[in-house]
Amino acid sequence: MKIFHIQHSTTAFSRAANWLCCGVRRHADDTERRSRRSAGDGGVCFNSTVSGGASPQTTAACQQHGRKISPIGGTQPAELLAMRRKLEATPAGNGVHCAKVVYRLASFDSSSDLDPESRKHSAVDDQHHQLLFEQLLDIAAENPDMIHFQQVLNKWIRSQTGSRVVAFLLISRECNACFCQVCGDELLKEAVNCGDASVLYRLFLLGGSAGSSEETGKEIILPPTYSPDTPPIFVDTKTLNEAFREKVQRIAASVDKTEGKPPNDSLCGTIALLQARCGFVAGLLMIHQNERTKDTERQVIAPHLHMIATLLSIVANVEEQKRLARQSQIFLSMAQNVFSSLQDMNLLVRNITKEAKTLVHAETCSLFLLDKEHSELVAEVFEKNGTSDEYLTEIRMPLSQGIVGHVASTGQMMNVSDVYNHPYFYPKVDERTGFVTRNILCFPIKDSSGNLVGVAELCNKIGKQAFTRHDEQIATTFAVYCAISISHCLLYRKLQEAHRRSHMAAELLVQGSTLSIAPEDILRFTVRDIPASTSFHADFTQFFFVPRSIGTGDTYIEASLSMFKELGFIERFRLRRRTLARFLLMVQKGYRDVPYHNWSHAFAVGHFCYLLVRTAAVRNALTELERLSLFVACLCHDIDHRGTTNAFQLQSKTPLAQLYSSEGSVLERHHFAQTVSILNMEECNIFDQLTRQQYQIVLDNIREIILATDIAAHLRKVDRIKKMVEDGYDRASNEHHYLLMCLLMTAADLSDQSKDFRNSKAIAENIYKEFFSQGDLEKQMGNRPLEMMDRDRACVPKIQLEFMDTVALPVFDYVSRILPDVRGTYNAIVLNRRCWQVLDQILKEEGLPRGGLDYLRNADLEEKVMKRIAESDEQQR
Question: How, per the record, is the cofactor bound (predicted)?
């Protein structure tokens, strides 16, 4: 076997081994002197038979050298007498069969009684013992690795005793279990687990029949007390119970098979106690050649048990120091990786999960952060099938469900070895991800104040059946690093958001200073009476009316004042006319000059909301504050729109995206923020007459309604809206109030599709002008835009048909089923869909280019479309 030498560590290790083993050497000398003065110093052996004295071989060997054999039982240590009385007092019927105490090694009187020839032999024995002692030191010094050390030491013990099989039964500090990982010079493919550590302790205290974890129950068994006067303790393998003997046979078979010797069911073996001054406890398993050599092999190894135990403890301590050093290095590397990513929460979470897996050897790790607002735990990054490059966008779990929720609620760590048999396991995560969870170590992450920040969940321990207590200790320490890093990351995020808000506020101030409101502008809308809505157009109160047709600029402001008045908001909520006029002017100036998302669009959306709120069904379904919130939200829902989509903002990493990306719906959140900014301006707060509670309710409603204009958010709510429509609207349900406001907002936002086809085409042209402008920017950035954003690939009729089928038609269908008075809007959209379909057919038939926007302004094509629709209707009649 090759021996690896490490010069520096070997020297230091040799010094440590010599220093620690000096006590063993002095102890051996003291024992020898005491044995010469006393009679009967020997060993303790648990056996199935009782011997009355020294074996014949021992007696003959000793008499040959002229030594006097003391009678057995002359002097016995007090601890052994007490233990013997305890064992002999054990009832025979309790299932524990304890062997009696027998002394095996004879003691000798002083060497002064020896003749010269005997003294010569004694000196040879001392030299032999010294040589063995030095050999043990060399083995320990040259093999500080526990595995290698066991292999070499097993080989040495086998060569000295002649035993057939030699192995150590060690105690794992991680899980407090007894196991064997090396047998002879073979490293077992899988360590043999002999049960809890108390099994080994009980074995040496009560005998072989106690070697079963089932028999210990809940009794706490401590390791045998170390005493320098305690003689060697041997346990015969024949006395082991069936469970422990089966483990011993597995250990022996692993070597016997390799040597061509079949395992013997009636193994003749010994388990010797290894105990050092430092308290290290282990067992030395020796399988003898046969029954006749058992006593001889025990006698040979007995003087060296203390030395072997001490050296094993030294190597174990070195291994522990190495492990702690590696762990410290991992923690240092982890801290460096984690704290270097404080600027990005997603990157921070990825680093935390990666380092956590490395520390405890787990397949996957998930970090759930606490969402206090919704009482949920959110996994912003969740590994899929253990690969570091596949992540789900988001997984949400209620605080009341699952092991993660229980840990979050109680604040206590949970180590679950079999999750599918645990009552708190939440299998839906496995169902969603396709991952199969076997065991879980879940621990809370708390800040310095003890407040919950999140919960980390480690799944599937690698190489073991479950996570160990050592893993729990590592997790506890790791949680502190996680809490510090996450808290600092959140603080850093708040500082960044404050900086960006300051930047956006400065931008708004610049915009406001360049577009300031002149006093005469406000005066113009306050000195005259508010006109009636029908004064702008006779059909102003009809759903088919196109509100953009009344003009621009001041006309929209006057019409908005008229709608506020007719809906009763001015009188009911005591809205001051000057404040309302200033507010509307600031909202108008807050819109940018983009093709579609401009003030005209906002006014059209507000007009459709005005028509909805006038219906009796909406007045009965929503409260006054909800109707006011809905109308104001419609006018403000696209303030400061940049003419680009949320996806473009995120892709371009604009200041808006950096400010709102963590919350989603970037532009919609910005629109709400701008609305609040206008309300906070001097003489612009139209809600100043509301109570604090009313004011908070209105702001909350406006926020939710504006966020509902994000089509992605609407699609996430479609199933809930559909269920509300099918079950029927319940005015007592807060959920139905929220869903109805969101639905009406979406319908108002898409209301241009419910007008005539000419208006629908004109609005589509404005929409695609914005889309194509964004597509051109993406091309300049080196990106490939979506088809509807690419002027070279987009086919407007085709895209319009897809959008109507997916979004517009279902929305107006739901609205018309709740509000029968607006059924005409749904029919208008159905007609527009037919027109777009006919237009697409004509373009194909005539071979006209379907790209670009020119054909949308072609009056001849429009006439052909309307003619075909009329002919089709005539045929159906």
Answer: Binds 2 divalent metal cations per subunit. Site 1 may preferentially bind zinc ions, while site 2 has a preference for magnesium and/or manganese ions.
Place of tokens 């990157």: 347
Contact 456, 445 (CB under 8 A): yes
Same-domain check for residues 653 and 735: yes
Where a domain ends, among 490, 523, 538? 490
CATH of the domain at 119: 3.30.450.40
- Tell whether 160 is in a known binding site: no
Structure tokens at 62: 């000793």
**Residue 5 annotated as part of some ligand binding site:** no
Q: Residue 452: phi, psi to the nearest 5?
A: -70, 130
What angle, rounded to 10 degrees, do the helices at 734-749 and 711-727 form? 130
For residues 612 and 745, give the distance between their C-alpha atoms in angstroms, rounded to a whole number: 10
pLDDT tens sequence across 220-230 = 566 667 777 77
Q: Each residue of 416-447: pLDDT tens digit?
A: 988 888 888 878 777 777 788 899 999 999 98
Known catalytic residue at 597? yes
For the segment 248-265, the average pLDDT, to the nearest whole number, is 62
607: annotated binding-site residue? Answer: no
The catalytic position among 597, 641, 671, 737 is 597
CA atoms of 438 and 434, how far apart (whole Å):
13
Residue 712 is assigned to a structural domain of this protein: yes
445 and 308, same structural domain? no
Query: How many other CB atoms sit within 10 Å of the CB of residue 615?
Result: 15
Residue 127, marked binder: no
> How many angstroms separate the first and last alpha carbons of the chain?
101
- Contact of 619 with 819, CB cutoff 8 Å: no
Contact 563, 611 (CB under 8 A): no
Q: Is 432 helix (H, G, I), strand (E, B) or coil?
A: helix
Cα radius of gyration (the chain): 43
